[in-house]
Amino acid sequence: MTRPYVPWLLLAVALALAAVYLFPLYWMYITSLKSGSEIFANPPTFWPREADPSVYGAVWSRRTMSTFLWNSTLIAAGVTAITVIFGTGCAYVLARYRNVWVDVGLFAILMLQVLPASVMVTPLFVAFNQFGLLNYPRTAVVLAAAAKAMPFFVVLVRATFMTVPRELEEAALVDGNSRMGAFFSIVLPLARNGILVCAILTFMSSFGEYIYSKSIIQDPSLQPASVGLSGFLGPNSTDWNSIMAYSAIYVTPILAVFVLLQRRIVSGLTSGALK
Amino acid sequence: MTAQIELKNIEKHYGSFHALKNVSLTIDKGSFVALVGPSGCGKSTLLRSIAGLETISSGELSIAGKTMTGVPPRHRDIAMVFQSYALYPHMTVEENLTYSLRLHGVGKAEAKAKAAEVAQTTGLGQLLPRYPRQLSGGQRQRVAMGRAIIRNPKAFLFDEPLSNLDAALRVQMRKEIRALHDRLGATSVYVTHDQIEAMTMADWVVVMRDGIIEQQGRPLDLYDHPVNRFVAGFIGSPAMNFIEGKIASDGRAVNLVGGERIPLARQAEPNQPVVAGLRPEHMKLATGTPTFHFPVGNVESTGSATYLTSADGHLQLVQSERSTVSVGDRVGVEIDPALIHLFDPQSGKRI
Question: What long-range pairs does A130-139 form, CB within 8 A, spacing at least 24?
Fold first, then answer.
């Protein structure tokens, strides 16, 4: 194969893979707009014959989606706040110091990443029960999910901190700043993009958190949208356009946020620091 | 002269690595001191210790009469120019320059005026609103310098500031840094691995190797009277030639292995083995009776000078006249006996 064809081939593969991932999204949106009979039509239609958006309003009020989404937002915000505040400090230390304890810490953090939520949920449930945390189920979920989100955040933000040259901090120290001041005025602004990206990813993944919420939160008025959706789905469910409308309402805000912040994610700020 | 920076018996260990071994050094107020040596000799560690970026394991360090052991960098009132310049990429040139002023509580208007003044001195006038990534290497270098001079520190520390520049710019910046030093009447400590920078810029050169100070002194004293073979080989370019031999029985000459003899200007202890040090620029192609001969292995001409290298690569000779010598010739060489250095072959010490 000659060289110019390789990029085209790779592009085609990439597009095909993207289509595999994006098709369900497309299907979700069009199904939500179809009527009940059209959904089951064979051959299926790829564009709704008569788009009917009224299902959105109906689902919103019938399924008390405002409560569910509020709970999801609350949980995701809590998880993100805890992860960003503690994870950033942790990542910085792991990026700047090199000794045996740092290596042990890094190893422990990677180990945490390996443990799946479905394994951890039972011991966590028992422990939270002992501490009386189950009386505050959303707080309990935030703690559990933050612990789950932390390793991923720490590892990625650590890599970001490692791209900030140490000499910049030293220059700030010599210029008259304290360790703390140098961190906040030099290192943090330069690592801002990386931290922001990781925070967004953390927010988005905990917005969809399911396992801990499902197990720990019994009261429907405190459950997040992910658990609310599962209550909607049953072995005999046929109300597909409502389910798809629910999903669309759930997913669209996250998608919008991602699209809006994408530029941020791409832009690089550190260039020109050295040489 | 009063001492601006004083180091007494400084020791530095990194785990089992002994980076600085009993280093004592006095840096006078207003002087330009170069720390020079091969990489890994401890010169940068010493500089960073003065800045407070490294803690010293033991010893005493004082700046302007105040003991600085354990004092954080921000309370030492020193400025440093880093090899990578370490400009803050998220700040404009002006913000970079005024960063330290803002930290020290200087008012906005005053800081702005100061920045404009420094920009004038360093030739950065039009560049104040730019970001470091929009500057060329030389301009970044100037910003780094400007950031150091803006607040009148007790000492300037330079950590190989010119090594990222191309050769022509390096020569120019060398002069500018020295001129700036003289104008400000500052005390400067300059780390470099380039002995030419050290020789041309400094009033006082400190040659280091393996964590110890091998020799310190005025540049030409180091050139004329190196205390050992290492300093002799390190100072001067091209490097000094070393020839093994033995002092003749009358003590007035060095007998070379090949049977030739190089006369000495002074009496040396007879019959001891020595290493004779001959600077390439002191050796001349003989017009009268040659002192010794070597076969030419390589001839390089730069126009202003001709470099002859012996066939075994151990000897080099520089002459400013054009030469008709070609590869394979056996040339006769003469040298002023007063310019010959003798070293002990074992210890390397000057005899």
Answer: A134/A216, A137/A216, A137/A217, A137/A218, A137/A219, A137/A222, A138/A71, A138/A74, A138/A75, A138/A78, A138/A217, A138/A222, A139/A78
DSSP label at A135? G
Asked if B85 and B141 touch (Cβ cutoff 8 Å), the reply is: yes
Contact A272 B133 (CB under 8 A): yes
B135 touches chain A (CB under 8 A): yes
Assess contact for B167 and B135: CB atoms under 8 A. Answer: no
Q: Is some CB atom of chain A closer than 8 A to the CB atom of B72? A: yes
pTM: 0.82
Give the best residue of A175, A177, A187 to mutate against chain B (max B CB count within 10 A): A175
Q: Does the beta carbon of B80 lie under 8 angstroms from any beta carbon of chain A? A: yes
CATH number, domain B3-234, options 3.30.200.20, 3.40.50.300, 3.40.50.970, 3.40.50.2300: 3.40.50.300
> What gap in Å lies between CA B174 and CA B200, rounded to an integer?
8
How far apart CA B204 and CA B31 sit, in angstroms, is 8
Q: Which residue of chain A is at minimal alpha-carbon distance from B155? A: A174
Task: Write the pLDDT tens digit of every residue in A25-77.
Answer: 999 999 888 887 888 888 888 888 888 888 888 888 888 889 999 999 999 99
Q: Name which of A176, A273, A275 is nearest B104 (Cβ-Cβ).
A: A176
Chain A within 8 Å of B307 (Cβ-Cβ)? no
CB distance B103–A175 less than 8 Å? Answer: yes
- The pLDDT of residue A182 is 94
Domain extents in chain B: 3-234, 241-343
Nearest to A167 among B76, B86, B132 (CB): B86
Q: Which of residues 203-232 of A touch B (CB under 8 A)?
A: none
User: What domains are there in chain A, each with its CATH number?
Assistant: 64-266 (1.10.3720.10)
Instruction: Read off the pLDDT of each residue in A224-230 and give the average, rounded to a whole number.
Output: 88
| Average pLDDT score over residue span A80-98 | 93
| pLDDT(B95) > 60 | yes
Average pLDDT of the segment spanning B96-119: 92
Could you say which architecture CATH assigns to the domain B241-343? Beta Barrel (2.40)
Span B17-58, pLDDT tens digits: 999 999 999 999 999 999 999 998 999 999 999 999 999 999
Query: What residues in A contact B76, CB-CB < 8 Å?
Result: 174
Tell me what ipTM this predicted complex has.
Answer: 0.85
Contact with chain A for residue B105, Cβ under 8 A: no
Give the nearest partner residue to B90 out of A170, A189, A274, using CB atoms.
Answer: A189
Q: How confident is the model at residue A273 (pLDDT cuts 50, 70, 90)?
A: very low
